[in-house]
Amino acid sequence: MQVLSPSTLAEALEMLAAAEHALTPVAGGTDLLVCWHQQPKDDLHVLDLSRLRELQPLRLTDDRLELGALTTYWQVIESREVSRAFPLLVQTARQVGAIQIQTRGTWAGNVANGSPAADGVLVLMAYDASVVLQSRDGMTEVPLDRYYTGYKQSVRRPGQLIAAIRIPQRERELEWFHKVGTRRAQAIAKVAVAVVRDSQGWRVVANSVAPVVCRCRDLEKALTAGRSFQSPEEVRHILRKDVSPIDDIRSTGRYRATVLSRLLYYWLAENGRGA
Ligand SMILES: Cc1cc2nc3c(=O)[nH]c(=O)nc-3n(C[C@H](O)[C@H](O)[C@H](O)COP(=O)(O)OP(=O)(O)OC[C@H]3O[C@@H](n4cnc5c(N)ncnc54)[C@H](O)[C@@H]3O)c2cc1C
What we know:
With about 280 residues, the protein is an alpha+beta fold. It has a domain at about 175-270: CO dehydrogenase flavoprotein, C-terminal domain (Enolase-like, domain 1), CATH 3.30.390. It is built from 10 helices and 14 strands. Strands 4-5-10-6-7 form a 5-stranded antiparallel beta sheet. Strand 13 and strand 14 (about 215) form a beta hairpin. Helix 4 (about 85-95) packs antiparallel against helix 7 (about 120-125) and helix 9 (about 230-240) packs across helix 10 (about 255-270). About 40% of the residues are buried. The structure holds flavin-adenine dinucleotide. Flavin-adenine dinucleotide (FAD) binds near residues 31 and 69.
């Protein structure tokens, strides 16, 4: 196993560009270490990001929140300003794993790992976040809802690192996050949902119901058109193009579809869009 430990971002990007073997970036390690024991170590080339101070800061301005790629869930939980400006980030962070995971795990690691059950991705997508990708050749910013190209696949190229995640500051009328798991802590979502209505419209995002965390675009369009719903079945019907839940060790596709449509229906009804 080879471990490279750059001390500046420029050095890290140079190492990525020049690498003969694919380098695996490591931030908090909470995803990577789960399958560490299964990996053949001879062929493992690791890029340790922990010394890159450029990736540390969390910055809140009038326009946006920027989470440097090493920002942990705990740093967000501890920030009163973030809690006021983006309450769903804090609610979500409190339900990722438990304190040990929250203090090590990063938002960027959650995005890069690309699990369909990722809670961080869910709420970031609902807040219309974008991903800042940096390579030796420059920087590019990709909306998070266009970042994934398939199950655990993304537009990020091997020479690029996630440098930051940006979330726009907007007036919001409604925001809601709900996660269904076996327990309140240390539980990967059976299904989770986040809804935001802001000055740009509706975003309804679900996890664990498709190969990637997904926006429920037909439901968003219906809500924008002012539609109300008479039953959970109506919501379920409108979700059918965007979600395709499967059976796995955590749940069944049927349970996920039922719970997602009921959660949404009852929350919408409470907010004036139900029978
Ligand atoms: C017990 C336990 C409970 C968990 N509970 C939850 C949960 O409830 N909800 C949830 O969503 N997740 C959960 N997770 C998963 C994990 O904690 C999160 O996905 C975490 O955010 C990953 O961040 P990390 O910094 O630890 O990533 P790492 O493990 O360091 O990296 C994860 C992936 O991202 C890549 N990567 C990391 N940083 C960058 C970067 N800057 N640029 C490019 N690639 C990068 C790595 O190469 C790797 O492929 C849990 C994990 C464990 C072990």
